[in-house]
Write a structure and sequence with these properties.
alpha+beta; about 40% helix; four-stranded mixed β-sheet; ribonucleoprotein; Ribosomal_uS5_N_CS; Small ribosomal subunit protein uS5; 2 domains; Ribsml_uS5_D2-typ_fold_subgr
């Protein structure tokens, strides 16, 4: 009896650790592959995973059923997480552009209280990254996978003023002048 209780506690603890990551399905598509005997159906899921504290990832999973595709997408997204430097206003430190395929995403920092002004997959990526105030615009393609990847590409190139000062071997005050 006591062993079962301990197992349940361990299971709950593992769930609590995993629950810090939020996952959102951006798109589920039914895809087909033409083979000798006809068409083989499967599902593709685009999933964004983030902890709302500066870490986010985009993943794709394909499987014969939707649940399997989502699980594979979550695993892929966790493999490809990036860390986003956020400033005190829960915004990004500077303007940035990201590209993936035919999609381009432009992101600008915003003052506190602005909120997330973005659409589609880019909005999901920014919210799960923990960005609270930002202006973003999708340019080019409207493909949700490429737009999500473009947003991650842009966020991965962000640098803080401290990082820039360290790279240049100069004091932080000199970066601003």
């Amino acid at each position: 009896m006591a062993e079962q209780r301990d197992r349940r506690k361990k299971g709950n603890r593992n769930r609590e650790k995993e629950s810090e990551w939020q996952e959102r399905v951006v798109q589920i598509r039914r895809v087909t592959k033409v083979v000798k005997g006809g068409k083989k159906l499967s599902f593709r899921a685009i999933v964004v995973v983030g902890n709302e504290r500066g870490q986010v990832g985009v993943g794709v999973g394909k499987a014969g059923d939707v649940i399997g595709a989502v699980k594979k997408g979550v695993a892929d997204a966790k493999k490809h997480t990036i860390t986003v430097p956020l400033n005190k206003a829960s915004s990004i430190p500077h303007r940035v552009n990201g590209e993936a395929g035919g999609a381009r995403v432009m992101m600008r920092p915003a003052s506190a209280g602005t909120g997330v002004i973005a659409g589609g997959a880019v909005r999901t990526v920014l919210e799960l990254a923990g960005v609270r105030n930002i202006l973003a615009k999708q340019l080019g393609s409207s493909n949700p996978l490429n737009n999500a990847r473009a947003a991650v590409d842009g966020l991965s190139t962000l640098r803080t003023f401290g990082d820039v000062a360290k790279e240049r071997d100069i004091p932080l005050e000199q970066v601003f002048s």
